[in-house]
Amino acid sequence: MSANNLKSMKSPKKLSTYLGWAFAVAGVLILLVAPTILTQYYVYLLATVFTTALLASSLNLVLGNGGLLHLHHGVFFGVGAYTVAIVMTKTSWPFAVAILLAPMVASLIALVIGWFCVRLRGLYFGMLTLALGQLVWAIVYRWNALTNGDNGIHAIPVPESLSSINSVYYTTLLVLIISLIILYMITKSPFGITLLATRDNPVRSESIGINVKSHRLIAFVIAGFFAGIAGVLFVLVERSVAPSLLFWNKSAEILIMCLMGGLTVFMGPTLGAGILVLLSMIVGLYTEYWLLVLGLLLLILVLFLPQGILGYLMESYDKRRSMRGEN
């Protein structure tokens, strides 16, 4: 095969990469000017989407890249949010300390939970994460002196520079972009590639000297860290926290976001988060049975789009490209 033919085979892949970057840059530019043309409600809604997108993307590091059935990722999100709330309402520490502590505490809880869970696989791993996550929820729910119990914590003070919804919007967007870049670099690093190997064939990975448990634990802690950052963003958007943030149904929604967008595509959870948050707002205007709609949506995904929306689009594009290459 000649060099010219090789170049022509590679060009579609390069073109798809350039198109992907072009769409990403265009999307960021649109989001930068969005607050100038949208009402305050939609600006708030987009800030909520950014927060949830970061949370879903952090879960996918463990779920999509690590192949671990993590059923209670929302607990780290709630721990991060509660850390900020407790520091700002019960201490005199500055806000900078609160936002630094939140992901650290969340990653510490992830380290403790992950230390027990990575010894198991499959459904047993998922059930243990669910059980330990519910244990943390019960502590938050019952520890009235620290967390105010089921009343939650409200009117959380934030710096004056973050008092407007526009400033919160740009902050959440900036943090989301930086976090996605870091997560993408992690997935493309030697550690991320090794994590994929432990997902695809853990037995062979162990046989060639890879410590599967340690790689899974590190991924678990990293995911918990970014979930804690998402918890900080939630406090900026909502100014209140409640034990429901740590309940299992929150984690179920995050899991569905990853499935909806596509586990094997990096931006899949971000797309899934945007669709699900906007859909929940729309459905909530007409009915209170959102969980029923969510269950039907999950059923449709499992039956007709097991690879997710973005995964399906990418798969279709690859098939068309391969057909053109054969022709």
Description of the molecule:
Helix content is 78%, strand content 0%. It has 327 residues and is mainly α. The N terminus is likely disordered. The longest helix is centred in the first third of the chain and has 35 residues. The radius of gyration is 21 Å and the shape is globular. It has a domain of 209 residues.
Supply database-style keywords.
327 residues, mainly alpha, globular
Task: Describe the SSE topology.
Layout: H1 3-37, H2 40-63, H3 74-90, H4 95-117, H5 122-142, H6 144-147, H7 165-188, H8 190-200, H9 202-207, H10 212-238, H11 248-261, H12 268-284, H13 290-304, H14 309-326
- Uncertain regions: pLDDT < 50 for 5+ in a row? 1-13
Per the principal axes of the C-alpha atoms, what is the gross shape?
Answer: globular
What does the main sheet amount to?
Answer: none
Query: What fraction strand?
Result: under 5%
**DSSP summary, beta strand count:** 0
Structure annotation, total helices? 14
Task: Classify the secondary structure makeup into a structural class.
Answer: mainly alpha
Average pLDDT across residues?
A: 88
Q: Radius of gyration, Cα only, in angstroms?
A: 21 Å
Distance between the termini: 15 Å
| Helicity level | over 70%
Compact description:
With 327 residues, the protein is mostly helical.
